[in-house]
Structures are given as C-alpha cells and as structure tokens.
Design goal:
Helix content is 77%, strand content 0%. With 220 residues, the protein is an all-alpha fold. It is globular.
C-alpha cells in the first residue's frame, strides 16, 4: 500500500515542481520530456525495489514480451478504433478545439518541434509505459493478493484500478469523466485478457501519441 501512495506522489511531484516554480516557463517544452522521464525513473524504481522486497520480479506484474506481436496487433487495433470514433465523431461534435482536454494539449505545445517531441515523450514514457506499469500491472496484482478468493480479488482490484486511474487524471467535466473511464476500461480489459502489460502499454502509448499528433495538426 505504501508503494501505491508513494507512486502516486512520484507522478505528481515533477508536475508540481515545474508548475509551481515555472522553470523554463513551466509545463511546456523540454520540461514535459523531463517530467515523463522523471516519472518513469522514480515510479519504476519504486516498483522494482518493492517487488524485490516481496521476492518477486517484474514478470509478476505482467511485464514480459513473449507474445509481443499479438499484443502489438491488439493494442494498435484498439487504438485505431478509438481514433476513428473519437476524432471522427466524438471530439468534433463535443467542442473540438474548445474541449478542455484538447486545450490542455494545445497549451502544452509551444509551436516548436522540440515542444512536440517533448510532449510525445511525456505521453509515451510517462503515460503509456509508466502509468500502465503502476496502475495496471502493480496495482491490480498487489491488490488482488489481499483477498482470499483470487477471482474476487482480481475483479475488485480491476474496478479499483479503473477508478484510481480515472480520478488521478482529475477530469473536470462529465465528458472528460466519460473519456477517461472508457480509456481506463479498455486498458484494464487488455491487461486482463492477455495477462500481460504489453498490449495496454502499446494501446496507451499509441493513443497518447496519435492524439497529440492529430491535435497538433488539426487544432494547433
């Protein structure tokens, strides 16, 4: 439980640091890459040593690449459907460039290639990789072990993971709540279906990077 609490703090600290002290203009540009890399280093190190303390390794939380081709297909397939539905129908009909989440991406871009690459690093490394290791792999497997019945524990921990992931993104409207819950359910379902982190990591990273690129192209 301490690892879950500290992991959440490790996600927040880099954002708070640049948001409060406004070094290099705060939450834009290369700072975004620094945030993503910092989150990866701090959170994965915390989880690695926590698992080592429990006499387990990263494969225990589903981090293996034994079926990476199948996971790649599943992850990209899910992402393709989401892109078509969201950018083809939902986003244009729910505010487009005026949506809070689209505006957040626009505000993070500084109009430079470096800024775009930095935001992609944050989305892939901080989001697609680190959030899945923490929210899906570690959270679900550790929480389910608290229950005597493994099946019950798995379902309860999965629901809690979905809610925890969603609340952690601080959605500010019903629309954003819907979006983040759908994403969380998709990533959790991929994890439960495959038993591995590869598919949800690919889906999460692919969605984040595709969304950033499309917003930069269409709305920035």
């Amino acid at each position: 439980m301490a690892t879950i609490i500290f992991g959440f703090l490790f996600f927040a600290v880099p954002n708070l640091f640049f948001g409060i002290f406004k070094i290099n203009d705060g939450l834009i540009g290369t700072n975004l890459a620094i945030i993503g890399i910092s989150q990866f280093v701090m959170v994965t190190s915390l989880i690695y040593f926590s698992l080592k303390y429990l006499k387990k390794d990263m494969t225990y939380i589903g981090l293996n690449f034994n079926h990476w081709k199948r996971d790649l297909s599943n992850g990209l397939g899910v992402t393709l459907v989401r892109v078509v539905v969201d950018f083809g129908f939902i986003i244009p009909n729910t505010g487009g460039a005026n949506r809070a989440d689209v505006l957040e991406v626009i505000n993070s871009l500084d109009g430079t290639t470096t800024g775009l690459i930095s935001l992609l690093i944050l989305g892939v490394v901080g989001g697609g990789i680190t959030e899945e290791i923490y929210n899906r792999g570690f959270f679900i497997n550790i929480m389910k072990d608290l229950f005597k019945n493994e099946t019950v524990g798995l379902w309860i921990s999965s629901v809690l993971s979905i809610l925890f992931f969603s609340v952690g993104h601080l959605p500010s409207s019903n629309l954003l709540w819907y979006d983040i819950l759908v994403a969380s359910i998709i990533y959790t379902s991929l994890f439960l279906y495959t038993g591995r982190l590869t598919a949800p990591m690919i889906a999460h990273a692919a969605w984040n990077s595709t969304a950033i690129l499309l917003i930069n192209y269409w709305y920035f």
